[in-house]
Structures are given as C-alpha cells and as structure tokens.
Specification:
Helix content: 25-40%
Structural class: alpha+beta
Largest sheet: 5 strands, antiparallel
Shape: elongated
Strand order of the largest sheet: 1-2-8-4-5
Number of helices: 4
Number of strands: 8
Order of helices and strands: EHHEEEEEEEHH
C-alpha cells in the first residue's frame, strides 16, 4: 500500500494556467485545478519521478534483502515502523533496520531483525522540487501546456500520451527504467 499526500498547488499555478488560456473569470477554477493535478500526475508518470515534493507512506512485507521505495527522487526517509499482524505500528529499534538513499535518489530499506513484524511502514518525502516556483521551467511549462491542452480538447477522444511538444519539454528529466 502506498499513500501520498498530494503536493500543494499554489494560486500562482492556477493563474499561470488561466493566463495561458486567457481566462479571466473564476467560475472554472475548481476544474482548472483538477486539470493541473492530472497534468502533474501525467508528468510524474512520464518522467518517472515526482515533480513536486510530497509526503509518502509505504507499507511492504519484511524481506532479508534491500527493498526500494516506489517514489523518487527520495529527499528524506523519516521513519520505519514495524506493523503487527493486527496492523498496529510500533517503532523499530534503529539497530533493526538500515536506510539508504543512493546516487540516483532511490530510497531503500533493509530490515535486519523483523521476526515480530511481518510488514513495515516507511514514511518519506520524495520530489524534484520543494514548491511550484522552484520547479524547473520546462517541467512547469509542460504541466501548464498539458492542462491547457486537456481543457481545450476536452470533447475529443485523446490518447494517454502527452503531445509531442510537451514530451520534448519533459524529456531531459525522464528517468529510464530497466525491466
């Protein structure tokens, strides 16, 4: 199970989208915010990383091997808790586990002594940028353009891939995954 707190989208992100679309009224703000969130998610899936910093809680089975966390780039691993069979969280002694963030900013956890806990819960923060204003211009511009594209073409049956111009903006940030 993975639970992420969505990153905050400030009002200036909405204003950027409204300026791009030349919208001056506020009656569609909620819809535009949801398009920004969807575009942010599509960007994350495309580049293989979370564009904006968010808190994540991930549960996994205890293993004798290193286990990689799902989101990246990991900025900080905050806690590792053992989960009882009933789902109660208990702090693991520091000597019972190891945490690491490698050079590719992938976080990982190794439990040395987890016989009393079949599962663990890891809390961590992951994302390329702390906030919208610090997001690289290419990513931010692509997110705005994609939200505008979805808004302008909302009645068309479109593919799940971002348009080529947007993909080109995001390509330098794309992380390759080997299967």
């Amino acid at each position: 199970m993975i639970e992420s707190t969505p990153p905050e989208l400030p009002v200036n992100a909405l204003n950027e989208l409204k300026d791009y679309l030349r919208i001056t009224l506020s009656h569609e703000d909620a819809k535009l915010y949801s398009l920004l969130r969807a575009s942010l998610d599509i960007c994350a899936n495309f580049i293989g990383a979370s564009p904006l910093l968010s808190k994540t809680i991930e549960e996994m089975h205890v293993s004798k091997d290193w286990q990689y966390l799902s989101k990246s780039p990991v900025v900080m691993i905050e806690s590792v808790m053992g989960l009882t069979a009933l789902g109660d969280a208990i702090a693991l002694p520091i000597q019972n586990y190891a945490i690491d963030i490698n050079a590719q900013s992938k976080g990982r956890v190794l439990v040395h002594n987890g016989q009393n806990h079949p599962r663990i819960r890891v809390s961590y923060s992951a994302g390329l940028s702390k906030n919208w204003d610090m997001l690289p211009d290419q990513l931010r511009s692509g997110i705005i353009r994609l939200a505008a594209h979805i808004y302008s073409n909302r009645d068309l049956d479109d593919s799940a891939q971002p348009p080529v111009a947007i993909a080109a903006l995001w390509q330098p940030y794309r992380r390759m995954r080997l299967l």
